[in-house]
Amino acid sequence: MTVIESPTPLPIDLDARYMLAREIAQQAGERALQMFRNRAALEVEHKGLQDFVSIADREVEGIVRTAVSEAFPADAFLGEESAAGASATLSSERVVWVVDPIDGTSCFLNGLYAWCVSIGILVDGEPLIGVVFDPNSGDLFHAARGRGAFVGETPLSASPACDVREGLVGVGFSHRLKPEAFMPFLVRLLGDGGMFIRNGSGALMLAYVAAGRLIGYYEPHINSWDCLAGIVLVREAGGTVNDFLANGGLLRGNPIIAAGRALYPALTALIDGRAD
Ligand code: IPD
Ligand code: CA
Ligand code: CA
């Protein structure tokens, strides 16, 4: 009997994808910025409680999706605005681009500056590339596994803080959950002398954790397109992140906990309501 050996999988060109992710985050961000400056003309739809969408989100996702499919037609794509049609087989694809065209839509629509384009790339189920572009500040946060995290050309390091009193903890909450799933954590954080900040863009706040601007970030439920790029950024900046992709996190979302390595155990203890 002839044994047919399974072919060795082709190598993935990470460099080309890393470069493209940075280019299209900036192109898409520039288009989003034009629409932000003319936002009075945008028609806004409700997706759910405190959850909005406009043509800007859809058009910017289209720009990213088209650029990816032209350059890498075999790569899979998971974008917030088209996620409803995502197939459960996505997690077994070799390369998946995980994209939020505008993270911080409420800020965007209300004339606030905390929004960004977020592009993460999973290869064989592992988050390997993360790019977050903030068109208002011009900050391009980017990281690739094993190569460090940067804003522009400047290397990033997560905070060395080991106590919540040493800085600001970013938080996120959406009405996908009941407030009770979140408020006890805030009570404990403040009770321990910590302080929180919520700017409305989980992706941007994770980039700030990588940059050491925030000492940590917690949200009890976040979607993969909000955080996949940020996960790579924080890890490459020397920080720690929970196993977000466990139990179907790619399609269903999960809690996210990210912090400098020294603070991470204390932050998880506060979230769980344990003494550290
Ligand atoms: C939201 C933001 C927010 C986070 C929510 C997300 P959107 O994304 O990242 O900070 O708390 O969980 O849904 O709707 O602005 O793209
Ligand atoms: Ca988002
Ligand atoms: Ca979004």
From TrEMBL:
Gene Ontology terms for molecular function: inositol monophosphate 1-phosphatase activity; metal ion binding
Residue spans crossing the bilayer: none
GO biological process, one term: inositol metabolic process
Segment forming the signal sequence: none
Name of the protein this chain belongs to: inositol-phosphate phosphatase
Enzyme Commission designation: 3.1.3.25
Reactions accelerated catalytically: a myo-inositol phosphate + H2O = myo-inositol + phosphate
Cofactor(s) named in the record: Mg(2+)
Coiled-coil region(s): none
Residue positions binding Mg(2+): E80, D100, I102, D103, D226
Family membership: Belongs to the inositol monophosphatase superfamily.
